[in-house]
User: Fold this.
Amino acid sequence: MADRSRSLNTNATGEFFVDATCINSGACRAVAPAIFAERHGQSYVQRQPTNGEERALALMASVACPAGSIGPSAEEAGAAAIELFPQNIADNVYYNGYNSPLSFGASSYLIQRPEGNVLVDAPRFEPALVRRLEQMGGVALMFLTHRDDVGEHERFAAHFGCKRIMHRFDLHRGLTAVEVTVEGAEPVRLADDLLVIPVPGHTKGSICLLHGMFLFTGDHLAQNQNRTHPTAFNNHCWYSWQEQTASMKRLAAYGFEWILPGHGGRAHYPLREMKQKMTECIAWMETVQART
Assistant:
């Protein structure tokens, strides 16, 4: 639970605050970018909410925070705050909140579909969220984008009896019990509306999931708040920047309007504009080097 006595001095005065335990996962900035910003490697409250909608988003950021660094906590604010997740993004796609410290606060998502719901990466295994997922139809498949953002995947798999899918190159000693593995660099069609796209670079086994106009990218691609286009993380490239640039070029051939990442900002552009943004992203990647 956040401690007001350790509140950062960068916070705007008022109800909400971020304390010194912040790990800078960026979850709060993704949920409520008008309220939270980054300075000196930590998030802070740049201004207090001014209406009910903004206050609800700030409460959602408190629930999402993997380090419990935002006050007031959901428990202090009331039970209603806990029921705000999963949050509908658009159509049948939801953001789960409850970001897990085991994945450095990566975001996870739910695709609700008649053929079986898909959990993209794993959040914290919180009873309130598990109950809501049950009410929404459970989880039939868990798509793990890469080894960093698996969170509490074992608990979700055991509870829902769902299959997990991941690229073989990202399996490791602590992550071997995956029911379905992707091999090689070719796309894999899981269903008419689910396409796995291997994108080696951030890690050797990074994969994206394309569902209609929604692209779930893990840590391969995200909106950069300091640029006018989405980018890759050249300061967090664990495998190969050259490979990641090549992967980005292949990815740009697909049609999508949404980028839903594990870390970093979401992006939503009309299809033609997204194509241009991807061109700008690739041009930028070709001019920089990775800093690991």
